[in-house]
Write a structure and sequence with these properties.
Strand content: under 5%
Shape: globular
Number of helices: 22
Helix content: 55-70%
Number of domains: 1
Order of helices and strands: EHHHHHHHHHEEEEHHEHHHHEEHHHHHHH
Largest sheet: 2 strands, parallel
CATH class: Mainly Alpha
Structural class: mainly alpha
Radius of gyration: 23 Å
Length: 551
């Protein structure tokens, strides 16, 4: 039993929205009498806010499928760029978001970043009513939706500060896992709300489906009126009350965020740093994307490191006043080798989860929605509609659901047996499953009846999502054990930022290899990366003389 003297009562405790000056979660008495209730209240508000962030960030994975079904005048490759742009924007936004809690406080940050989601939600609803508008207007909304992806880094950093180390895996797993249900929620809600005039006359007129679509209960026939704009507008209904709940129900921990200033000052810091983060993302995309949107000068493997370096440079150079010292302290995590090893391991888990979530709907549509038959000269063609095609909108939500549902389980198991041993097992499973998925995709993309391979394809993808969910929780556990409270939050933010580039990498790679007729190569490449991370995890955390044994 902990016999330490109970610390002074937390200042601001009586007011649910007040700053808390004293916070000692490792003290058993404090935790049971004061801390537990406050920590869990912040957690249960954080989860739906994070859920909406994921929904707004990931919505382009579903929107692009319906744009294809509605006959929007864009190619499959152009539609893949929309999911990729949303992905890289969300990843870039996570870099400054990992600094927000220290600089601005948890309550201030979660309230403002949740409220910011209203802009891309409304903007997306507007542009989707205009199929005749140029591609860049849709790309701009996809870019703006990245704010939702950024919210994860600040959310995880915030919740980390409230809980004792022994509950880190469970608490972070709950926040991330249930928050990740935003991807599933989005994939279920969007097909549903597109079938009804959700906002009446205020919501605009419908478009007519040119191809069969679907939702979780089956197909929606071509010719059906469709309010695709509701994919954006629907989130407004939840974001407004959620913003109020964040403001009146959450707390700033002064032990974590000692120099937030007034709420207006805190909001200014967040807005300033988020705005700065758009600059490197836009510049990199301009260099990366092909004409007419960009210059097409860079490949993806140059573009991503450039984006990260530019974002960090902008953060370091542009910070001023008390922000400058806060940013400097955050940068100290880059001197620790565990920051880099855990970044790679988190790419395996969350990078895979979010990347596959973004790419799966359109991949199902392209691979299984068409018959793959050779023409008279023997060249394989992929344009003939498959009458027996499974609907992406009916099945794509299952994978993210499985991944999100298993995330808290992974955290709980890791609290019991250690994070790294769990990470090792799931990484091995993912390596084998990735090879199998690639093989099945190859068979389907060369078949006139690809639907025969769909059950196996979907089942193997569920294995990938299941393992990635478990691994997300185990990686969080490892970070919480290795790093102290002041560093764990920034490390969580940084690793989640880099891993979020999976939302860019996966759609681009899968789209490129599908276009080339070799979709399996993307997944064989993922398997090689997973195998390399098996060695990395063993070396750092599982071998006899590991730096930290099975944290």
């Amino acid at each position: 039993m902990n016999t330490r003297t109970m610390p002074p009562p937390a200042q601001g405790h009586p007011g649910s929205g007040a700053d808390i000056a004293e916070w000692h979660p490792e003290d058993d008495t404090f935790w049971e009498t004061t801390g537990k209730r406050i920590a869990y209240r912040n957690l249960w508000i954080s989860i739906p806010a994070l859920l909406c962030g994921f929904a707004v960030w990931g919505m382009w994975g579903i929107i692009t499928v319906q744009m294809l079904n509605l006959g929007f005048p864009f190619s499959q490759a152009e539609l893949f760029t929309l999911t990729a742009i949303a992905g890289i924007a969300g990843a870039t936004m996570r870099i400054p978001a990992s600094f927000f809690i220290r600089l601005a406080g948890g309550r201030n940050t979660i309230f403002l970043t949740t409220s910011m989601l209203l802009a891309p939600a409304i903007g997306t609803g507007i542009v989707l009513q205009h199929p005749e508008w140029p591609l860049w207007t849709f790309q701009l909304m996809a870019l703006w939706s990245g704010v939702g992806g950024g919210n994860f880094a600040s959310s995880m950093s915030n919740i980390n500060g409230f809980f004792p180390k022994r509950l880190q895996g469970t608490a972070l797993g709950l926040n991330a896992g249930l928050g990740n249900f935003g991807v599933t929620t989005m994939q279920i809600v969007i097909p549903l709300v597109m079938t009804v005039p959700l906002l009446g006359a205020l919501g605009g007129t419908p478009e007519i489906l040119q191809k069969d679509s679907g939702w979780i209960l089956g197909k929606i026939a071509a010719g059906t009126p469709t309010w695709i704009q509701n994919a954006g507008f629907a989130w407004v209904l939840s974001l407004v009350p959620l913003g109020a709940l964040c403001w009146f129900g959450m707390n700033n921990l002064k032990s974590v965020s000692p120099h937030t200033g007034s709420p207006i000052v805190a909001f200014s810091k967040i807005t300033y740093l988020y705005t700065l983060a758009f600059a490197p993302a836009i510049f990199m995309l301009w260099l990366y994307l092909p004409a007419p949107t960009g210059l097409g000068l860079l490949n993806m493997w140059v573009a991503i490191p450039l984006d990260i370096v530019l974002a960090l440079t902008v953060m370091r150079v542009a910070a001023f006043g008390d922000m400058k010292e806060g940013v400097k302290k955050q940068f100290a995590i880059f001197n620790d080798k565990h920051t880099w090893s855990l970044t790679a391991l988190y790419i395996v888990t969350f990078g895979s989860f979010i990347g596959f979530s973004m790419a799966l709907p359109l991949a199902i549509t392209v691979i299984f929605g068409f018959q793959h038959v050779p023409d008279a000269s023997g060249v394989m063609q992929h344009t003939l509609k498959n009458p027996n095609a499974p609907s992406a909108l009916t099945y794509a939500w299952i994978g993210p659901f499985v991944g999100a549902a298993t995330r808290p389980i992974g955290g709980w198991i890791s609290d019991k047996v250690g994070g790294s041993i769990v990470t090792q097992v799931i990484t091995a499973v993912m390596a084998v499953a990735a090879v199998a998925v690639g093989y099945v995709m190859m068979q389907a993309y060369g078949s006139a009846t690809p639907e025969q391979y769909f059950p196996m394809f979907l089942g193997l993808f569920m294995v990938l999502f299941f393992a990635s969910g478990i691994g997300n929780g185990s990686t969080f556990r490892t970070i919480g054990v290795i790093f102290d409270r002041t560093q764990a939050g920034p490390v969580l933010g940084w690793t989640s930022a880099v891993a979020a580039y999976g939302a860019f990498v996966a759609p681009v790679l899968i789209g490129q290899y599908i276009k080339a007729g070799t979709p399996q190569l993307a997944f064989y490449g993922f398997a090689v990366f997973y195998a390399a991370c098996l060695v990395l995890n063993w070396w750092f955390y599982l071998r006899q003389n590991a730096y930290v044994k099975n944290p």
